[in-house]
Amino acid sequence: MLVGDPDSFRSEFPVLERLAYLNAGTEGPLPRRAAQAASERIEAELHGGRAGRAYAESIRELAGRLREAYARVLGCEPVEVALTGSTTDGVNTVLSGLRWSAGDQVLTSDEEHPGVLAPLGRLRRLEGVTVRVAPFERLADAVDGRTRLVACSHVSWVSGRVVDAAALASTGVPVLLDGAQGVGAVPVDVRALGCAFYAGSGQKWLCGPEGSGALFVAAERLEELSVPWPGYGSLADPSDPLESGPAQGAARLDHGFPPGVRSAWALASLAVLEEAGLDWVHERAASLAERLARQLEERGLRVAPRGRSTLVSWEPARGADADEEVARLREAGLVVRSIPSRGLIRASVGAWTSPEELGRLAAAAAAR
Amino acid sequence: MLVGDPDSFRSEFPVLERLAYLNAGTEGPLPRRAAQAASERIEAELHGGRAGRAYAESIRELAGRLREAYARVLGCEPVEVALTGSTTDGVNTVLSGLRWSAGDQVLTSDEEHPGVLAPLGRLRRLEGVTVRVAPFERLADAVDGRTRLVACSHVSWVSGRVVDAAALASTGVPVLLDGAQGVGAVPVDVRALGCAFYAGSGQKWLCGPEGSGALFVAAERLEELSVPWPGYGSLADPSDPLESGPAQGAARLDHGFPPGVRSAWALASLAVLEEAGLDWVHERAASLAERLARQLEERGLRVAPRGRSTLVSWEPARGADADEEVARLREAGLVVRSIPSRGLIRASVGAWTSPEELGRLAAAAAAR
What we know:
The first copy, chain A, has 11 helices and 12 strands. Chain A is of the alpha/beta class. The longest helix of chain A has 22 residues, at 53-74. At the A-B interface, α2, α4, α5 and α8 of A face α2, α4, α5 and α8 of B.
């Protein structure tokens, strides 16, 4: 890859030869190298078997490297990273790991995904916790003396707005960020964000396999969490599982044994992004997304208020149905999605996106 | 494949060309067709992208077929199957989904895996549940009026003994079976076993991918479980996640969205076993395992008391260290494992195993 060359970066993703693939917010495009790494690992398992000391060591080594790679993109230490299967896993880990008392309050926003809201619904039903919903853009103002946790998106999946993390941090209440539209899309530095917990997806902006993800737990918060989903890997002493304390670091919260194929694939995807330079990836995607928003507005479409992110949501032209509009755009080779119940179309713009694709999308969106 | 022909079945598993692979109890050998199915799915994702209605439909369709396939091997309805990432996931789902009161008692055995004991340890610490341990072979006798659940292995990972499920069922206390060494290895009919819950692994005797598994929840027990790890897929109405009730059937307990690659791989592995005939697979593996046990005993080795299963555990000759013995056998191309803290060597015998391999293993094990 020629670093800093958009065409060279773009050529890593074969799907872009066929489609204007603008849906990394659901699942990212796959780099060729990631598919190759996954298939090579499968071949090795096929011919070499999946047991023995060397095999177990390869699993551990891949998991360790993946933990390090996620730590780099999150801006934390590897010991603060748990390997999960999804953002939802991370949210469940935190909400099930904290100890609750009836009457505790969790504050969340009006632009949250079911991956946050479904676990909050469980907390409300089973633990008697109060869930209060406030507008995404004024969340910090809604924190009060009863708020034990703020659980909200880093970047809204609905609008692409970015949460005011500094204002939340200044409240002193611990914050759990849903980073499904954050990590890999926009710069993430969990220290600067001041959050206690950050749950991210591997298959979206990090272009990894389905069923991958990472959870950041600030080192000083780890002991506040019990291990909600224990297994062999979460124990300090697997030979005495009933009595054993937890394993070291956030690895105790890993969601099952990290499969070797998943690790190899996720690592290869991350390597493509890191080779291009994460700063460049973030900057280019944000600029392109801004360009798309401008182009849509210039054509008279109403773009939902957004932040410096990679998501652009707008109302279909002339009151069209959002799902029909998504299907119509798909016919033209433009892959976007609707946001159910909001009547919006959402495009996910990556550093792999070309300006030409955006022009085509804006024209098609207005051409109804 | 020539059905009923051992050599033809064996030739589906390339690792057997290089190794006497006798460790399906950790992870099974991979069939060539499974690796191919996984790689083909990855190629489709690479070139076609991973979004849109048709893609989402393909994920659902694969998951539905996998649920049906697991239901066939478990002897239940698809609506009673949750797709998990491991046996441990299934155990955690049941133990976290049931509602506990301090003083409730769970009965377990003295031959359980950390995948059962680690979740039980959590229950004891956080819910004040009493965990009582009784000998595996006399578990039903230990049930008393305070026992709310029996959680134990179908087949002991230590010895290969098979639990007396009929005796357990006759106590009337609900039973959660850890089927890690059961499903795919020995005949499983969850109705005949009379269990309420059965947690199995996909990557062991079913030769599927790491991070796969299934949980059976008897239809009449489903409402006793809350959804302990909710997400988009567990909701009846994802548009109202805070208020929504659970989705239909055991799918509400699925562990995350079922990844397409995982489903395609698991299905292809199951197809190889079903094509050979599960009855034949079970019968041949059990006969071969019995033969190995006999050969070891004939050579003066002490085989741990076992049942009609696919595991054979024995004490290393002349007091040797079990891990050193495993390493020595590995040098001879014989892949077995030790059982930590019991000082045993364990061989996993499959329908894919050849009599010649067993003769070689028995000779090598005695030849120290």
